[in-house]
């Protein structure tokens, strides 16, 4: 227990130091500009400084013979059938994620907590507006940049930090999986997507435990993010990638839930037998 606490403190200390360094570099280089290009660079540096570099450094320190990839469970071979099944589960889960996000967004706090609800709504609107700015792409080149910034980088960095580092420190058990999923969702500061993001984080956590490879949750995370990026590029504001399975198509969300649960059961049985 003591060893785990010390490791978490080391990880957080490195994370804090590199996050502050990233902010200082951005301020010096871009002078605090609020242009889309400047904010994209800020996003890149913060993601790298906060989530990508710290777990790699920690894994290098803690790994046997400084084998960072081995400590992070990124050196293990992955069965291609597991990869295909995991990606299929992720795609099938998108409608139920949208349904849960829709239900989550309808939560209303008591009147006495209106000030908290107003703050939460404002944070959600700000995050949505910034995301829409980032997703704008006029050509394939910009699309590829967006995929790197909003799909590849966060999938790799966030899984390294949460499943690869925090969950392993906490013990890779049920409690560790759910605590990690809770923190993973909370740190995004998007309260009206908290429940589906937490459940998705838990799914990633279980896939990590069942396969023993961090590459499975990384790939699932990437697929989830990249679908949103590509859908916006193709359809713009008319994209229904984040509403398919909710509202009038709620029944698709329910069907998605059943298929996802079945897929997870099949995945668990396959990995458990092996």
Characterise the protein shown here:
The chain is an all-alpha fold and 274 residues long. The chain folds into two domains: 1-69; 72-273, no CATH class. It is built from ten helices and no strands. The chain has helices at residues 2-30, 36-62, 68-71, 80-105, 114-135, 140-170, 174-186, 194-211, 215-235, 250-273. α4 (80-105) crosses α9 (215-235) and α7 (174-186) crosses α8 (194-211). The model has no long low-confidence stretch (mean pLDDT 92).
Count of domain modules: 2
Biggest sheet, in brief? none
Outline, from the CA principal axes?
globular
Distance between the termini: 31 Å
Series of H and E elements: HHHHHHHHHH
Q: How much β-strand is present in the residues?
A: under 5%
Q: What value does the average pLDDT take? A: 92
What gyration radius follows from the Cα positions, in whole Å? 19 Å
* Low-confidence spans: none
Number of helices: 10
Helix residue percentage = over 70%
Structural class: mainly alpha
E-strand count: 0
Brief overview, please?
Helix content is 78%, strand content 0%.
Write the layout of secondary structure elements.
Layout: H1 2-30, H2 36-62, H3 68-71, H4 80-105, H5 114-135, H6 140-170, H7 174-186, H8 194-211, H9 215-235, H10 250-273
Helix pairs in contact: 1-2, 2-6, 4-8, 4-9, 4-10, 6-7, 6-9, 7-8, 8-9
Write out key terms for the chains shown.
10 helices; 274 residues; 2 domains; 0% strand; mainly alpha
